[in-house]
Amino acid sequence: MEKITSELLEKIKSNEKIKRKLAYKDPLWFSFSYLRHHFEYSLAPFHIEMFYLIKQTDCDFITVMAFRESGKSTIMNMANVLWSILGKPQKKFVIIISKSQEQAKSQFASIKMELENNESLKNDFGPFIEEKDDFKKLSLELTYHDSKIISIDRDQSIRGLKYGQFRPDLIICDDLEDISSVFNQKESDEFYERFQREIVPLGSLGTRIIILGNLLSDRSLITRVKENILTNKIEGVFKIYPFLDDNGKILWTQKFSDSETLKKLLSKLSKEAWKQEYLLGTNGWDGYYKEVNLFYSDKDESPYYKLSCEYDQKLEELYQRYKHKILSENLQTPLVKQMEEFTISVSINENEFPEELPEDDPRYEYCCQFNTEKEKLTKKFEEEYRLMLIIQSAKKDGLSQKQIDSIISDRKKKLTAEDVEWDDDSTDIFKRLQ
Questions:
Q1: For residue 177, with 0-12 CB atoms within 10 Å meaning exposed, 13-18 middle and 19 or more buried, which class applies?
Q2: For residue 166, what are the contacts with CB-CB under 8 A and spacing of at least 6?
Q3: For position 208, which CATH number holds?
Q4: Can you give the residue range of the structural domain that contains 354?
Q5: What is the mean pLDDT of residues 8-29?
């Protein structure tokens, strides 16, 4: 593929016939020609792969899990909808489903703005709208193209929806869940069943279904769909794009170019949000983990937190050593040449180590070794933490350093859990040890 430069784009733009022809055939060129104002930074290789997923015709069930601020909705939702109707696919009835009414309005507003205000798009592919009142609803008909777009929240009734003789031929499910919904077991299960019973059968044989989201929990819809695809229970494509690959390489260097940019991002996040919503439960901490861990320990100067960070780092290193031996994983296959520089592992089963395995399981010995090492690591952490609390208490009581050293020497010999009165904060730190 020829390198896309500003000069090349200007040449194409100056030739209206070539511009329209390329944009009609290719969603990437469509976006470069008409939606470039949505792309503040240069595209990353995984963005090129997203456009490939939109253009390919071999699979119509596509699931993409990507880190926050990755641009997945801009490409896989907005650009996809516009090109699929105006470009080569010629889709007739598009449904966008979101978690809430507010999200549905936001998704619709991006498309509305382009159809209403993008003069270049209107000149080359219009006219779009005859009735301005259509924009007051989350539904509009593009009469000239004999097509319709509606945006709804997931609680609205969608059974049997049609536009004239057309059943939905493109369904985009964008962030269908949030933290509260996935941690409500009953709600999560009920929505997954509804997705299977109502949303999937909504279209016809050639309907394309795209699911977009982030890692929320192992009970979330996108995680369940991932497991079904990877275990061949359903036919589809699953792609995961974490902030870092297995080797600690940033996937979008054009936006997050160095460690200072990374630190700026981390300053807005809790450590848990970073690992879940940006690393997506992958191996991507490697290569950056020590730097990230140091950053978070510097944010909280308490010795308790620093010790906790040290434990986290050692525990992550232990998981890393045994992960490929115990968990069932596949390396994600690149769909475009640009993605070949990245290594991304995808766990086939839950990204959790089994507590025990049957003796005839080939992973049994590795699991025993892992649990033994984890137990030793946890025991050492507990001892160091209890000792730290005793030292802090002694300092508050005004004991001298010599007296404290004497207490430490005695306590190291006979320290037990009953020696320490645990406060609420202390208990919270030990939740991970359960």
A1: buried
A2: 92, 93, 148
A3: 3.40.50.300
A4: 259-433
A5: 87
